[in-house]
Design brief:
The protein is mainly alpha-helical and about 100 residues long. It is about 60% helix and about 0% strand. The chain contains four helices and no strands. Helix 1 packs antiparallel against helix 2 and helix 2 runs antiparallel to helix 4. The longest helix is centred in the middle third of the chain and has 18 residues.
C-alpha cells in the first residue's frame, strides 16, 4: 500500500523577462525614491502601490511560481504586471 502523496508539481522555470522587470522596479524605487513623489514632494501612494504591485507580480512570475487556482494564476500573470505598470505610467503622467 502506498501512502497518499500529492501530485508533484511540474518543474518550474525562471521567467527571465519578468524577473528582470521586478529587479529593475526594485532598484529604481530603492535608488531613486523621488520617482514615487508628487511634484510637491509628498509621497504619491497610488503610484507607489501600482509600482509595488507590478514588482510583486513580476517576482512571483519571474521565479517560476504558477498557482493552481485560476484566479491566482490570473492575478500573478504577466498581463497583471503590464496593467499595473500601465497604471503607474498613467499616474506618473497625471502629475
Amino acid at each position: 500500500m502506498t501512502p497518499n502523496v500529492a501530485n508533484a508539481q511540474p518543474s518550474s522555470q525562471l521567467h527571465v523577462l519578468s524577473l528582470t522587470i521586478a529587479v529593475a522596479i526594485m532598484l529604481a524605487c530603492s535608488l531613486y525614491p523621488l520617482l514615487m513623489a508628487a511634484p510637491d514632494g509628498k509621497a504619491d501612494h497610488a503610484l507607489a502601490t501600482a509600482l509595488f504591485a507590478a514588482m510583486s507580480v513580476a517576482f512571483v512570475r519571474g521565479v517560476g511560481f504558477i498557482p493552481r487556482r485560476l484566479i491566482w494564476r490570473w492575478l500573478f500573470s504577466g498581463w497583471t504586471c503590464v496593467a499595473a505598470l500601465a497604471l503607474a505610467g498613467w499616474l506618473k503622467i497625471l502629475h
